[in-house]
Amino acid sequence: MLSSSAKRLGRHIVLARRHYAAAPQSFNVFDRNVKRLQKDRAASNVEESRVVDYLKDEIAARVADRLLDIKRDFNTVVDLGSGCGHIVKHATKDMMKKLVMCDMSEKAVNRDADVKYEVDVERRVVDEENLPFEENSLDAVVSSLSLNWVNDLPGTLIQIKNSLKPDGVFIGAMFGGDTLFELRTSLQLAEVEREGGISPRISPMAESSDMSRLLTRAGFTLTTVDVDEIQVNYPSAIELMEDLRSMGESNAVLTRRPFLKRDTLLAATSIYNELHGAPDGSIPATFQIIYLIGWKPSASTPLPMKRGSATASLKDVLENKDEDK
């Protein structure tokens, strides 16, 4: 649970699961222009967008902790999909000298341009699907809650790997398939009841097993994928969806319906309370976070030993251990 200051929670709206075949075809799921406009609109209301930074700040802190665990002095780190600046709030000189904030929304990346941080900051408008960095030019790339809205996720991961120097590291966080399952099921049941069908209000989400394969396919080595959950309480589903909108995280699926009928919204709110409501009248919202770490191969990258090259039997080692007890 987050602190009481984070009780007005939110993030991604309706979600489904995104699965990739071994060789995914290139197709568009999200309207990237709409997503940029949503981010612009959210960042334009500076005070309101700062109020709802709580979730992104919390996850960014966990990404920053993973970077801090790497005992290496990074000169420059690229924050891909930085939004208004969440990782930079946790960046210290022990991690890096400079952070390059990159986001598709100019208003978002410049929202807090007047704020001073412990490390030097450069701000650039960059589309995550078309990276401008030269090959073998970056020490590290981090990304927190941005890759969810990328259409060609395998292609973006390959671009990130190519831009890293040998032995460079990528650390990312993105929403997993169980994110906001309470809101998803409530909206689906409400639409079936009131409108006789389900509309595409669900943003596809990747599974942790998908991401492990995609990192390997992109050429990363020593990959690590782990999953965490954050649960935040809201007064009702309406406040949850309001926070999502203020975060710039409204639905951007290409085939989405332009609006949610009031009758359906009220039904979804009632269903949410009935299925998931707490005794105090609040409702929980679950956010599943997939954390990713991958290294670009280099001459010094540790490699697994060849099969059959072991000089000791694990069975013998375990038997000797039992005898010593």
Question: How many helix segments?
Answer: 10
How much is the average pLDDT? 87
Q: What sort of overall outline do the alpha carbons produce when their principal axes are compared?
A: globular
Tally the beta strands. Answer: 9
Name the beta content range.
15-25%
Structural overview:
With 325 residues, this protein is of the alpha/beta class. The protein is built from ten helices and nine strands. The strands form two sheets. The protein has a seven-stranded mixed sheet with strand order 4-3-2-5-6-9-8, sandwiched between helices. A two-stranded parallel ribbon has the order 1-7. Helix 4 links the parallel strand 3 (96-103) and strand 4 (120-125). Helix 6 crosses helix 9 (262-276). The radius of gyration is 22 Å and the shape is globular. Mean pLDDT is 87; it is low at 1-24.
Labels describing this entry:
34% helix; alpha/beta; two-stranded parallel ribbon; 325 residues; disordered N terminus
